[in-house]
Amino acid sequence: MAGKRLKAAYEGISAKNTVALEEAVKLIKGRAAAKFDETIEIAMNLNIDPRKADQALRGVVTLPHGTGKTMRVAVFARGAKADEAKAAGADVVGAEDLLEIVQGGKIEFDRCIATPDMMVLVGRLGKVLGPRGLMPNPKLGTVTTDVAAAVQAAKGGQVQFRAEKAGIVHAGVGKASFSEQALLENVQAFVGAINRNKPTGVKGTYIKKISLSSTMGPGVKVEIGALASA
């Protein structure tokens, strides 16, 4: 019966309606019925034009409860730094050998980290890693001498975000198996990061729309309200 009531409530929400974050999480979580653990995704429509330098948006945020996804991390480093990366749990570590592997089209990782001295080498992979959003970037903490911390952050639930041409930012903020409270806190952390990184060139309303969805389910629009200042 509870499932039928939830389904009815879900279907009663039109494309124009919005619901409180707590209700949205409950609806999305309750309707995630796939045989696999669906990812809960957030999409934010922002009043920005990323093509303009003062409205570009890119950054990272560590979700308090992680993403639920196993991140494979590659590190370009040599010597002691390579050893540190391996000890921290990096899945692939190398230099010229790793360069050849990537150039050959074998990209079996979700995050790429490099020490500063390796960027001359990694720069050759711009056309390969760039389109996939994998190019190391000092602003995102993926070009660093502290490779151990970077690997641990990537493995521990750090999410990178970047606004697309239409001002849309989206990311996975957990799994359907997470508790409602964990999903709430992850969403709040993500929206908070978007707010803190508000571009200087924004005029008027910054956040236009927020919606949540699961991998196989439709989206639910969330009331912005307090989230706008989270």
TrEMBL record:
**UniProt-listed CDD domains:** Ribosomal_L1
**One Pfam family here:** Ribosomal_L1
Q: Does the keyword Cell cycle apply?
A: no
Per the record, the domain of life is: Bacteria
Q: Which InterPro entries match?
A: Ribosom_uL1_bac-type (IPR005878), Ribosomal_uL1 (IPR002143), Ribosomal_uL1-like (IPR023674), Ribosomal_uL1/biogenesis (IPR028364), Ribosomal_uL1_3-a/b-sand (IPR016095), Ribosomal_uL1_CS (IPR023673)
| UniProt xrefs under SUPFAM superfamilies | Ribosomal protein L1
Coiled-coil residue windows? none
Residues in the signal sequence: none
Q: Keywords, A to Z?
A: Repressor, Ribonucleoprotein, Ribosomal protein, RNA-binding, rRNA-binding, Translation regulation, tRNA-binding
Q: Which cellular components does GO assign to this protein?
A: ribosome
Family as reported in the entry's similarity comment: Belongs to the universal ribosomal protein uL1 family.
Per the entry, what this protein does is: Binds directly to 23S rRNA. The L1 stalk is quite mobile in the ribosome, and is involved in E site tRNA release.
User: Entry's PANTHER family?
Assistant: 54S RIBOSOMAL PROTEIN L1, MITOCHONDRIAL, LARGE RIBOSOMAL SUBUNIT PROTEIN UL1M
- Cite the record's note on assembly: Part of the 50S ribosomal subunit.
Its recorded name reads: Large ribosomal subunit protein uL1
Identify the species of origin: Lacibacterium aquatile
Taxonomic lineage of the native organism? Bacteria, Pseudomonadati, Pseudomonadota, Alphaproteobacteria, Rhodospirillales
